[in-house]
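Format notes (please read before filing issues)

Several people have asked whether sequences and structure tokens are stored in separate files. They are not. Every record keeps both together, in the order shown below: the sequence lines, then the token lines. Line labels are part of the format and must not be stripped during preprocessing.
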Amino acid sequence: MVLAGPLTGPLTNASQVLYLPADEAARGIRISIKGVVTAAEADWGGRFFIQDSSGGVFVENISTVQPAPGDVLAVSGVSYPGGYAPIISKPHWEKTGTAPLPAAKPVAIEQLMSGVEDSQRIEISGIVRKAQLSGSTLQFELVSGGYRIRVYEPIPSGIDPQSFVGAKVRVKGTAATAYNAPLRHLVAVDVYVPFLADCVVEKPAAPDPFKEPLSPISNIGQYQAGRALGYRVRVKGVVAYQRKGEDVFIRDATSGLQIKSSQRLALSPGDVIEAVGFPGVENFLPVLEDAVFRKTTEPRAKLLPRDVPIGELSQGLHHSDFITLKGKLLDRLAEEVPSPAGESNIVKTTLVLQTTNLLFTAEAQTVKPDPGLASIPLGSTIRVSGICFLQSEESGTIKSFQILLPSPDAVTIIARPGWLTPRHLLIILAIALVVIVLGASWIIMVSKKNSALRHLIHERELDQVELQKAHDTLESRVKERTEQLKFQITARKEAEVQSKAILAERTRLAKELHDTLEQTLTGITLQLNTVAKLFQQNPETASYHLGLVRNMLRMSRVELRRSIWDLRSRELEEFDLSKALSISGNRIADSTGIRVEVESRGDVRPLPEVIEENLLRIGQEAITNTVKHSGANWTKIQLEFGAREVVLEIKDNGKGFTPENCAGPDDGHFGLLGMAERVKRVGGQILITSAPGQGTTIRVQLPVEQPLVPKPTHEQADYEENITNPDSHC
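Then the structure lines:
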């Protein structure tokens, strides 16, 4: 099952929960499922596993109330990443009945150990290797296909856990993972069996494993015809060394053997014991695993170490045997390490020894540092007696070996080193070498310094001459280059200023032509259209409109003269902005049936030339747009003078439009763009408000300061006369 995208819930089956990525599960997606409880241990604090037709999932039900296996529940909660697989958190559950547990799915041990069956009800078989009582459950370790899993089931009445070891069983239960939470890594797999009937013994263990026939230690790991899977062997030998709770080393007449056992019965060297366990291989050498042992009634034996040649160790002989070896002590290391049995820390002393051309180590474990081992001089020839622990490769080649010392007394000094030890010799040679090197270095250094000094003086004299020449040349070139750069920078700045001026003037002329000639021509067109309609029916009215056309032509001439004048001087004439807006608006709207109202508020005064010019052009463009596009019958122009700003507002009651969808430069309409550019150029703000059926409002707000009132020139007076009395002259 693959999730196509982020889920919002609710999730309705266990499979959907399990397939959530960790980051998705952390979002707390809502879950609502119904299923059967498959596992709920008494010491879980209310937690349980539930399974529906799609699979199983863990429910983090932290409560004193806990359902039992077989209960049918309706569970609602939220998703959570869990320590390994997604789970249901913050649950609310209700029991709706009971039902048989879902059928257990037979799985291969490799599939189970991969972790993919986490929270699922599975079936698997194997050999019981260890068993013990743990609280209210029987805990045993099951080995199958080289893997080991832990199984928990209710305690059968009157069972001896050790009688269970060696039995072949088939179990049905819920798989749960032990994991490393920070890394979300699988560590081990546990199986929880809810009912005794779910654990079937397919082949019982031997009633008394100590009645098995004795096997020589040398036969462990060798071919034995007819051996059954998971068989146990019984051996007997003399104890050479014990690490309590971890392993025991014994020896019989044939060889030595390492017996791994968690049994904590204390043994002493020389005790004769019997052990029963499962043959195994560790580091490609035989070992007896999961063993139990007991002392025999035989008297303690005197166990002497075997003096063996190094060549036999290289052949893989004497593994786990009690032997003695001689060697020269090269190094020593003492460190405190945790006890394998989980008790207080111990001191591990490691001796590095050399014999012939081989190096090996001897290791002793003591409760505290041993002064005897620490006082052995390096370079001494010593004899060590202990357990030979070989490290083998798959090919059978021995790559290293180690001697486990039963006690510090197992080390005997044969010969102490003389004064002229390799270490002392190395120190003497090192001192002599240092003196020789220092003397030779001093002589060579003095000689080189004298030679270098003479050469340096000669070189500096030559360099001084060359430096002076280079300095003179550089000064000349710097002066030339400075002049060139000054000229280039000046030319570039002039070109840049000229380019900007040309661009600004072109933009201004484009706006001027649009706001004057184009608007006048639009008015003329509208009047001529009216004349054409009225010429036959009402000649007098048509003549009136022809008169308006003549006035507009005169205005166009005046506007053109004004544009020509602006090319020579940017000073505008002093005039009444409100009156100019009223005259222009009524002329443009005349014969269209649109009533134009103009109102002034505040301290009416002359404004800076740029402000007056742009406000007039913006007002003309707004009225022109009203006539062309709005279908209005009324428009109002309001001019409000403030202390540091002036506000022009044009309203109409037309059909309105959607500002986001209106036509623009791409459609050949430049009116709104021109108004916005004019406002931006003088640092103001423009707000266009409109909606279909609700008319249009254009509000322009420009910053302004009180200007000096210039004296009108002849050209300015002529322009004002044309604005206020357009019929006065041509």
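For reference, the curators noted about this record: Confidence is low (pLDDT under 50) at residues 568-573, 706-730. The chain is about 30% helix and 35% strand.
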